[in-house]
Amino acid sequence: MKSFHIRLAELTRKRKTKPLTDAEIIEIQHCQQLNEVYVESVLTLQTMIVAAETAKDTEWESQLYIQLDSLECDPHRTKVK
Fold it and tell me: 3-class SS at 76?
């Protein structure tokens, strides 16, 4: 789970009981932007993994899985370097 997912959940929970400040609303928007980049990165890697599997290129597939794992395990990273 990413740090921005945790913060987004905290702010969403808070919003249920009291109004958010302008800064918190901006923070939600920032978390949503980070999530968009992260989801796009994961989906791109997953698509490339399918292509590598189809091509039976196990070396490429392995490299892609390493990148995906690295992306998913880092709590702050949103895209492949």
Answer: coil
Task: Please check the confidence at residue 81 and state whether its pLDDT lies above 90.
Answer: no
Q: Which residues of 22-50 are buried (b: 16+ CB within 10 A; e: fewer)?
A: eeeeebbeebeebeeebeebbeebeebbe
Q: Is residue 78, in this structure, part of any structural domain at all?
A: no
55 in any annotated domain:
yes
Q: Is the Cβ–Cβ distance between 38 and 78 less than 8 Å?
A: yes
Q: Residues 73-78: what's their mean pLDDT?
A: 93
- Report how many domains make up the chain: 1
Model pLDDT, residue 2: 95
Does 25 fall in a domain?
yes
Tell me, what's the pLDDT at 55? 98
Give the N- to C-terminal CA distance of the chain in Å, as an integer: 19
